[in-house]
Amino acid sequence: MNADHLVVAIFVVGTLVQLAAAALALLSIPLSGKHYAWVLLSCGLVLQIWRRVYLLFDGASGSRLHEGVSALVVSVFMLLSVVGIRSIFRSMIETSERLRIEQGRTQEYVDLTEALVVGLDRAGRIALINRAGARTLGGQKDALLGEEWHARFVPPERSDGERELFEKFMLGTAEPIEVFETPIVTIDGERRSVVWHKAIQRDKEGHITGTLAFGTDVTERREAEAAVEHLTHHDVLTGLPGRALFEQRAELMMASARQDGTPLALLFFDVDDLKGVNDRYGRPVADHLLWEFADRITEAFPDQNTVARLGGDEFCVLLSVHDTAEADAAAEKAREALRQPYRLYGKEIWSTASVGIAWCPKDARDVEGLLWRGDAAARKARRSGGNSQCRYVSGMRGDMIRRLSLRHDLAAAVAAEQFVLHYQPQVRIDTGDIVGAEALIRWNRPDHGLMAPANFIPVLEEIGLIETVGEWVTREACAQAVAWQEDGFRGLRMSVNASVGQFRGKDFLGVIRDALDSTGLDPHDLQIEITETMAIEDIHEALELVAGINAIGASVAIDDFGTGHSQLVYLKRFPVRTVKIDRAFIMDLEASESDQVLVSSMIALAHGLHFEVVAEGIETEGQLALLQDYGCDCAQGFLCRPPLAVDEFAAFLKAHARAPHRVLSGSTSVSACT
């Protein structure tokens, strides 16, 4: 092979190598067209090929040989370079693709978590956010990217402070707070509470690039905690502050008053006869009454935050006043609002309040002592008839202690069976026959002896034990009547008093049936006494109960007849057997012409309605003689006999059986009653 042929061969080989390099370069151009370097390299290879062709046909043989060898070497190195560069770029592309896939997977993982994930750049703009974060903020992820966090999602009152702290974090002049709770504002303007776990982001060189925070939305939890906190310190029914919150606020007021010398007045409210409303109309009506009661007290003292419900039927308010006259006027204003009729469930109900007034620092210097004295004054007002107000005076504390002791001892008395029954005879005035006995409860209180019912029945009603004790009285009286009948004293009618709580209780008729069934007493030998006030307060309900008692076979007597005489016309509708004239009309019967007119009229009215008449509280023969003239049927009182213990009453029955006593014709005395 001569030199020319060798040159041609070398040029051909070099050209083929360069074509291969150009082809590799062109094939490496990505479809996106972004790798412009490959295009320039390919163009350079083409120019090199053109130059070599030109030298092949135009240069001298020696120079062409030298040039061809050089070109071949260069072409080989270019081919190797292209292959190397192509491999490097392919590796870079593959790495970039892997990073893209990993980032996608990372975003998927971040989106899968229920935690809020928010990343901020150095300028405080959102650089990363997951689905939970976008959902909480109320926007789309893409739309939220780039939003300035502190201006857009931090409450206005906190925005400047949090932005300043963030800038210190970015400068590295403040230590980051890793866990904290802060409110955020959503796109819709809703405020939510979030607990954040935050970390500072850095690049490879350690420069701060932003923050990454993981958050938990605790809004519902905080709302639940706030609700529990509210319930802890507020009354569920009325929404008023409870005792604990009142005591906290009162302590602050009293501390301030001690500094500036301003006196404080506690107004302590007791709802009069709340239990009666509950017994007559049921729990929903009583609860609604308390709710309206609270509303009226709040309206009476609109500028006070110490209005509170202490529990049950007790409310209070602590006022800053100048003198007793101002406190009295405030109490009277509230009572006037409270005694207006209440329209509840279609019923017009009247209720009043008893108000006790205690002073700080005159009566007490601490909250507990002030409440104690206000309660004592309110109870005094209630015992005076209710619908009144009373200032605390020295000595009421002792009364309060004694009453609390009474409540405690009564609760124990039920379990210890300390109650006993005494029996007072009822005697026919015209024949002197013993026709009945009224069962009267006594409390054999340790270290005190026998106590009359007037001293403890109201307290039993207060502590909710009246129905339990009343059930025992009914059963015990029926059992005693059966025992006397078995001893031969038949035809004796047993009278049992029903309290308001019993009469309006859940199953008064059931109590009567159980007592009759368990003792075997003939229902016709049992008489239930209810007061006239009980009968006419809710006449429809009372009519149903009286009819139910009659259906059992027992009878009903109206006790304290005449005390509600303004509405006596209603009694004609009651299927009762007996009326009992109250002792208040008998006490001055001999000296009072007005009482004589009233009593004679009541007896005539009762007989006109076909009622049997029993006069209570007869203590003198003169009273008995007048009642005999008026046609009264039966007598009951100390003139006949006081209430007797069981064995004493049995002895009285036996003595009367051996020597029956009769009313002497034309006489003013009854031997059975003497």
What labels describe this entry?
674 residues, disordered C terminus
Describe this structure in words.
With 674 residues, this protein is an alpha/beta fold. An eight-stranded mixed β-barrel has the order 13-14-16-17-18-19-20-21, surrounded by five helices. It has a five-stranded antiparallel sheet with strand order 2-1-5-4-3, sandwiched between helices. Helix 1 packs parallel to helix 3 (61-112), helix 16 packs parallel to helix 18 and helix 18 packs parallel to helix 20 (539-552). The longest helix is centred in the first third of the chain and has 52 residues, at 61-112. It is elongated, with a radius of gyration of 51 Å.
Topology at a glance:
Elements: H1 3-27, H2 36-58, H3 61-112, E1 116-121, E2 126-129, H4 131-137, H5 141-144, H6 149-152, H7 156-171, E3 179-185, E4 191-202, E5 208-217, H8 219-233, H9 243-260, E6 264-271, H10 274-281, H11 283-300, E7 308-311, E8 314-320, H12 324-338, E9 342-344, E10 347-349, E11 353-360, H13 367-383, E12 389-391, H14 396-416, E13 419-428, E14 434-445, E15 449-451, H15 457-462, H16 466-486, E16 493-497, H17 500-503, H18 508-519, E17 526-531, H19 532-537, H20 539-552, E18 555-561, E19 578-581, H21 583-586, H22 593-608, E20 612-615, H23 621-630, E21 634-635, H24 646-658
Parallel strand pairs: 11-12, 14-16, 16-17, 17-18, 18-19, 19-20, 20-21
Antiparallel strand pairs: 1-2, 1-5, 3-4, 4-5, 6-8, 6-11, 7-8, 9-10, 13-14, 13-21, 14-15
